[in-house]
């Protein structure tokens, strides 16, 4: 039996696939610009009232505050994120997603390896997907050259 899709269904499918790809590209570009310390390019990935949230700081909202915050972060520290395993749910001109991160960083002069995830809200602005809110949730940090002090994996022997 052949599974045929009508023109309207095909259009909807292609639109959803294009949206998902554009959102994945948004996360990839964020990492790319972080590696290069390109503050203006990162801020351009956010909606005008977009926000960045982390447990370490109060929410940073709006292009001017984002520009200042990323400028300070990149002046003081270095971030080398690797993003992967992107889960995306699209609903018209808004979407949500979770994107996992492996991070190498130099913070306060110390090399670190870290891992966690971004919880994102996206919005389509003039046909382009932007971050409405990007929340970073880091699970663990390890200083480079040191061993993890606690094994995060259960042995299942008890």
Present the secondary structure layout.
Layout lengths: L6 H29 L3 H5 L2 E9 L2 E5 L1 H14 L1 E14 L2 E14 L2 E16 L2 E16 L15
Parallel strand pairs: 1-6
Antiparallel strand pairs: 1-2, 3-4, 4-5, 5-6
In short:
The protein has 158 residues and is an alpha+beta fold. It contains 3 helices and 6 strands, in the order ααββαββββ. Helices cover 30% and strands 47% of the residues.
Structural commentary:
The chain is α+β, with helices and mostly antiparallel strands. It has one domain: Nuclear Transport Factor 2, Chain: A, CATH 3.10.450. About 30% of the residues lie in helices and about 45% in strands. It has 3 helices and 6 strands; from the N terminus they run H-H-E-E-H-E-E-E-E. The chain has helices spanning about 5-35, 40-45, 65-75; strands spanning about 45-55, 55-60, 80-90, 95-105, 110-125, 130-145. Strands 2-1-6-5-4-3 form a 6-stranded mixed beta sheet, with helices on one face. The protein is globular. The termini are far apart. About 20% of the residues are buried.
CATH class: Alpha Beta
- Rg calc: 18 Å
Task: Describe the global form.
Answer: globular
- Strand order in the largest sheet: 2-1-6-5-4-3
Measured by DSSP, the beta-strand proportion falls in: over 45%
The DSSP helix count reads 3
* Strand-pairing-aware structural class: alpha+beta
Q: Mean of residue pLDDT?
A: 90
Q: What's the CATH topology label?
A: Nuclear Transport Factor 2, Chain: A
Indicate how many domains the architecture comprises: 1
- The helix fraction, in percent, is 25-40%
- The beta-strand count equals 6
- Tell me the CATH architecture: Roll
Enumerate the spans where pLDDT stays under 50 for 5 or more consecutive residues.
none
Sheet with most strands: 6 strands, mixed
Note the gap between the termini.
51 Å
What oligomeric state is this?
single chain
Give the helices and strands as they follow along the chain.
HHEEHEEEE
